[in-house]
Design brief:
Elements (H helix, E strand, L loop, with lengths): L1 E10 L2 E8 L3 H6 L1 E6 L5 H13 L19 E10 L2 E10 L8 E6 L5 E2 L2 H12 L3 H7 L1 E2 L6 H4 L2 H12 L7 H45 L3 H73 L2 H36 L10 H17 L3 H37 L6 H37 L3 H34 L2 H72 L1 H7 L6 H11 L1 H36 L11 H73 L18 H75 L3 H25 L3 E5 L8 E5 L5 E4 L5 H21 L6 E5 L7 H18 L2 E5 L3 H6 L2 E8 L2 E8 L1
Parallel strand pairs: 3-13, 3-14, 8-12, 12-13
Antiparallel strand pairs: 1-2, 1-4, 4-5, 5-6, 6-7, 9-10, 10-11, 14-15
Helix pairs in contact: 7-19, 8-18, 8-19, 9-17, 10-14, 11-14, 12-13, 14-15, 20-21
């Protein structure tokens, strides 16, 4: 075990959190270090923190752990990191001032594998199992507090033995006699068990031999070879039957398919004849349609088609020109009343935009009137609120002038009396119920002693009830005298509530007045702005009317209503655009007139060409209305499309008929070929059937059962009757197999039983031999255990020998390794005159005389105890526990400086050899000079602080 790190907070004189890392390079290199400081600085507190983190105890405080918390703090904690068996652990314990003995929480965390224990009791048990030491033993071997350093040297033999047992795990020797007794009982039980098993196994052997003889007699009565031969022959016949049935079925199936194919062939030949007739009719209709289409594909009809299309295009162009002509004429018609040469459009435009700007400004007379009405309403509301405010101020002044005095202390006393009255009533009811129960139980008890005890209780209850009733009456009298306070309190409370209510109302009125005043101010500003706008607007109205009449005079009534719209300026832009395009429109009108005349000439020429073509191809088209020419000609085109569609349908129909004819031809050829193939297969199936029928006849001759009449036929043709016959034969053969199989199974079961019984018999004989061998071994073990029992019961215990050996070894190490250096005139021995482990010291100064260790002086006892503790620590390090930490609190103060000069260097040399962690607490000046690595504890006022120094 090795201490790695200590963290603690609010412990004794250490206020706040402190950390001591024992693994820092300074402390690890030195190995031996000094914890120094003035008296009361808190040196021993460091060791107390280690024991607190491991065992939840402090050696100096016994059980009152809460005294370990720093003054002025409610809680404290200690966190210790330590290593045991190459695993690192972290123990955490928290103290609270309210918990005097038991710490509030304790946790152990294994940093190596992550295991976590939270329960305090579980943590303490686990740490004890890790260290193999309880708290007292830990303070005698690892951390030696003040005054406890020499306890192992002078402790009683029982304590020494307990420490040795825990550290070196000697408890396994405690129960050796119990172990021997258990082993003897177990051996006796096993012996009796083996004897019983031997008897049982012999009985089973005799029974199995009898069963084997009976089964062998049954097997001798069955001719198994004959049965197997018949069974094989029946299986062979079944296989042949299955083949015959298969070929018979195949033959019948093929025959059926051939018949079906012949029927299908006759049907398809008939269908082929019908298709040929249908093809002839469709071809005739198609030729008629081709003759009708020849006219529509002629050159004359195509020319006519082009002339008609050209006629339609010319008519469309004419209509478009006429439409454009009427539109331009209409635009010029609007402006015919204007003197276009002398009309000043810019002046009209200027007047229009001046009026448009005025319209955008505008003035809302209705909104202005609404603002005035709202101002009058708000002014009326303000006057009403001011009147209410004045009245509330008068009420508050009148309430403040009336003074009401009220004694609160008396009223509190009155309320307390009412509560006390209720408490007395509950107690009286409770004790009355208890008294009635006691009286009822008193009538049922007959025991004199119980009756006496019950009477005492009844008297007590009656006296207590009488006392409670008197107190209640006194309280009720006082309550009656002070009852007037309720009315006074209500009057006082009413006045306060009225005063608070009036103040709240006044505050609310003030808030409303402020809001109303702000609204009035805003409204008056709006009214002022609107009044200014109204004056400006009235000045602009006269100018607007003047401009409007001037525009009307210049453009006329119709143009004014159509284009003068102050809400839509786009109309004015359209009017301006038309006025600017007047000259262009006149040119366009002349151009369109000439185009229409030219187009009429073209239409007349094209119409003459159409009439000439119609006379050549004998087509009747009505020319009474040239615009209807398109509709008349479209009828001819529709008839052409209908004829083409019909021709296409007949082409598709003829193609389908041809495809069907080809398909039928291929199907007819395929059916004929299939019929020929099936006839070949039919012949093969007949040959297979005949061959297997001959094999069947041969196999039936070897059958010992009844012969079937079918075997006497020379040949057989497959038919439904033959199929049914062979199916029936197969069923008969299957029933024969069942009979033969049962007989053979019966034989096999008997034979298998004989084999199994023989194997079981062999195993039983082996078991008998094993049982006899185990009996011999058990008897030998029993004899040895009896001898061992006699030896142990008459001799000292084995555990005592082991303890003696270990203590001798510890004393030998202490004498040779430590006392021979630091105190060479002394040596430790065990008192051989008794079996107790009492230590003696042999002194060379006294002529090698031995004496009790308690006779040593203080300095001698310290050095002897130090040697013994170091030797004990060496033994622990060499065991599987490996405790490498060793802390010593004081003790060196009893040595003079010359002795210290000899002891300390020797201890340092030994520590450097074995790498042990040794910590010494002392305020001896020589140690401060000799041990260069120190944990220095300083106390300033009531607070301690820690520093690690190396000189």
């Amino acid at each position: 075990m090795r201490i790695n790190k200590l963290i603690f907070k609010n412990i004794a004189s250490y206020k706040g959190e402190y950390e001591i890392n024992f693994d820092v390079s300074v402390l690890r290199r030195s190995g031996i270090f000094l914890i120094s400081g003035n008296t009361g600085a808190g040196k021993s507190t460091i060791l107390d923190c280690i024991t607190l983190a491991l065992y939840a105890r402090v050696y100096r405080l016994d059980k009152n752990i809460s005294d370990f918390i720093s003054k002025g703090f409610d809680s404290a904690y200690v966190r210790l990191t330590f290593t045991v068996s190459e695993k690192r652990y972290e123990s955490f314990i928290e103290l609270h001032i309210k918990q005097k003995e038991t710490p509030r929480s304790m946790v152990l965390n294994c940093l190596s594998d992550g295991n976590f224990i939270e329960n305090r009791d579980d943590v303490l048990v686990y740490i004890k199992s890790l260290c193999r030491l309880d708290f007292e033993q830990f303070c005698q071997t690892v951390i030696l507090p003040q005054g406890n350093f020499q306890e192992f040297l002078t402790s009683n033999p029982k304590s020494k033995a307990a420490i040795i047992d825990n550290i070196f795990n000697l408890k396994k020797y405690d129960n050796i006699e119990i172990f021997l007794k258990k082993e003897l009982d177990l051996t006796k039980f096993n012996r009796e068990k083996l004897i019983f098993l031997d008897t049982e196994e012999k009985n089973r052997v005799s029974i199995n031999k009898k069963k084997i003889n009976e089964l062998k007699e049954i097997l001798s009565l069955i001719d198994i070879e004959f049965l197997k031969k018949n069974l094989d022959n029946v299986y062979k016949l079944i296989v042949i039957c299955e083949k015959i049935i298969k070929f018979n079925r195949n033959y019948l199936n093929i025959q059926c398919r051939i018949d079906n194919l012949k029927l299908d062939l006759s049907f398809k030949i008939e269908s082929r004849k019908k298709l040929k007739h249908e093809h002839h009719l469709q071809s005739k209709i198609k030729s008629q349609l081709d003759q009708r289409l020849a006219f529509f594909h002629s050159n004359d009809f195509l020319d006519l088609k082009n002339f008609v299309r050209r006629h339609i295009e010319l008519l469309n162009d004419k209509n478009q020109f006429v439409y454009e002509f009427s539109r331009v004429k209409k635009d010029l018609e609007e402006l015919k009343y204007l003197d276009l040469d002398n009309f000043n459009f810019d002046y009209v435009k200027e007047l229009y935009y001046e009026n448009a700007i005025f319209c955008e400004i505008g003035f809302d007379e209705k909104a202005y009137n609404v603002l005035l009405v709202k101002e009058r309403q708000l002014e009326i509301q303000r006057k009403k609120l001011l009147e209410k405010q004045r009245k509330k101020n008068v009420e508050i002044k009148s309430i403040a002038l009336k003074e009401v005095t009220f004694d609160f202390d008396k009223y509190v006393y009155y309320e307390a009396l009412k509560l006390l009255k209720g408490f007395y009533e509950e107690l009286i009811l409770k004790y009355k119920n208890g008294l009635s129960l006691l009286l009822n139980s008193d009538n049922e008890n007959n025991d004199f002693s119980q009756v006496v005890n019950m009477n005492i209780k009844i008297d007590f209850y009656e006296k207590f009830l009488e006392h409670l009733i008197k107190n209640k009456e006194l309280v009720e009298r006082d309550i009656e005298n002070l009852k007037f306070l309720e009315d006074a309190y209500r009057a006082y409370q009413g006045k306060e509530k009225l005063k608070i209510s009036n103040l709240n109302d006044l505050l609310e009125l003030n808030s409303k007045l402020q809001v109303l005043q702000s609204e009035l101010d805003i409204l008056r500003l709006d009214i002022l702005r609107n009044k200014e706008n109204k004056i400006k607007w009235e000045g602009c109205v006269a100018n607007f009317k003047k401009n409007n009449s001037e525009i009307l005079k210049r453009v006329g009534q119709s143009l004014f209503h159509k284009y003068i719209d102050y809400s839509d300026k786009n109309k004015m832009l359209v009017f301006e655009s038309k006025f600017k395009k007047v000259s262009e429109l006149k040119l366009i009108l002349n151009d369109l007139n000439s185009k229409i005349s030219l187009n009429d000439v073209k239409i007349k020429d094209n119409l003459d060409k159409i009439k000439n073509l119609l006379s050549n191809i004998n087509l009747n088209i009505n020319f009474s209305d040239s615009t209807l020419l398109e509709e008349e000609f479209e009828k001819f085109l529709i008839s052409q499309r209908n004829i083409e569609n019909d021709r296409m349908k007949f082409n598709v129909c003829l193609d389908n008929i041809n495809n069907e004819k080809l398909k039928l031809e291929s199907q007819i050829e395929f059916i004929k070929q299939t019929i020929l193939d099936f006839k070949i297969e039919l012949k093969d199936e007949l040959d297979n059937f005949t061959s297997n029928f001959l094999n069947f006849k041969v196999a039936m001759r070897g059958n010992t059962c009844d012969t079937d009449p079918i075997v006497f036929l020379d040949s057989l043709i497959p038919s439904k009757n033959s199929l049914e016959h062979f199916l029936k034969l197969k069923s008969n053969f299957m029933s024969q197999i069942e009979v033969f199989s049962k007989e053979i199974s019966k034989y096999d079961a008997a034979f298998s039983s004989v084999q199994n019984l023989q194997l079981e018999l062999n195993e039983q004989e082996i078991n008998l031999r094993n049982i006899n061998s185990k009996l011999i071994n058990i008897n030998e073990r029993n004899d040895k255990l009896e001898i061992l029992k006699k030896i142990i019961t008459v001799s000292p215990s084995l555990k005592y020998y082991v303890q003696s050996f270990l203590i001798d070894e510890i004393l030998s190490i202490a004498n040779k390794k430590y006392l021979s250096i630091i105190l060479p005139d002394f040596g430790l021995e065990i008192n051989t005159d008794s079996r107790d482990f009492n230590f003696l010291v042999r002194s060379k100064r006294d002529g090698n005389m031995t004496r009790n260790v308690k006779t040593l002086s203080g300095g001698e006892r310290f050095l002897v105890s130090l040697s013994l503790s170091l030797a004990f620590s060496d033994m622990i390090r060499d065991s599987d526990l490996k405790i490498e930490a060793f802390f010593l609190d004081e003790g060196f103060g009893s040595l003079d400086e010359d002795t210290l000069k000899v002891v300390i260097p020797k201890i340092s040399d030994l520590q450097r050899i074995d790498g042990r962690q040794i910590g010494i607490i002392s305020h001896v000046s020589y140690l401060k000079e000799e041990i260069k690595t120190q944990i220095v504890v300083e106390k300033v006022s009531t607070v301690s602080k820690i520093t690690i120094e190396s000189f």
